[in-house]
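Appendix B. One record, verbatim.
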Amino acid sequence: MDYLKVADRSWPILRRLTRVHTTVYRLTNGYVGHRSLGAPPTLLLDHVGAKSGIERTTPLAYLEDGRNVVLIASKGGHPRNPAWFHNLLADPETTVQIGSERRAVRARVATPEERARLWRKAVKAYSGYEGYQERSGREIPVVILEPRR
């Protein structure tokens, strides 16, 4: 199966589902959309388009690591990094909503040592990341969101 072709054809549908997820998450203050049976918890990441300057919100699976929040820039194993990753590189100060809580955070890419530790933790939480890594042909970045306060 050519995952890349399937993924490329699926993006318009996935974008619509993402908008619905984001809307429901915000309307219910995270009551619906934060946790789903058998899936890692989801947060809402606010970010600004690096080229467009348009404010965007993306629902993403996350891990907690002490006071930090960890994101995996997998894009489902796509060979390119997700747009939100590029946007955070350009403008790392942002906010996330985790359930009903909003947090001001600053994004940074994990060091190689941090990545190794956090990648193991991520795969333990969601084994699908292993397949994404094999398919992607790139090292999937791990992003750490540190509190700004």
